[in-house]
């Protein structure tokens, strides 16, 4: 099962600069574990204590996975996963 994972600029240091990588897994948990086998260190930047990190947003085919089943969201062949760091800041 092939799943395209879009990688934000801040995490591309783990993917040798690649904007998108391919992964496999039945759930997001499985997918992130699979990515870790080829891109060491990336999983810890996305997941903490079995949950998505607070300031990381993950989208499955343009749907926020926090409104699906979170890290346990099921995946199917051909899905697209986008990882986006949350943006904060600005002037008051």
Automatic annotation (TrEMBL):
Protein name in the entry: Molybdopterin synthase sulfur carrier subunit
The record's Pfam families line, in alphabetical order, gives: ThiS (PF02597)
Extract the SUPFAM superfamilies matched here: MoaD/ThiS
Query: Which Gene3D superfamilies does the annotation name?
Result: 3.10.20.30
The record's InterPro entries line, in alphabetical order, gives: Beta-grasp_dom_sf, Mopterin_synth/thiamin_S_b, Sulfur_Carrier/Prot_Modifier, ThiS/MoaD-like
């Amino acid at each position: 099962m092939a799943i395209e994972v879009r990688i934000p600029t801040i995490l591309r240091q783990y993917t040798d600069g690649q904007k998108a990588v391919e992964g496999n897994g039945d759930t997001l948990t499985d997918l992130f574990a699979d990515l870790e086998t080829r891109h060491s260190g990336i999983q810890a930047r996305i997941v903490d204590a079995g949950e998505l990190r607070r300031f990381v947003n993950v989208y499955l085919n343009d749907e926020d996975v926090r409104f699906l089943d979170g890290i346990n969201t099921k995946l199917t062949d051909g899905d697209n996963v986008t990882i986006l760091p949350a943006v904060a800041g600005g002037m008051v």
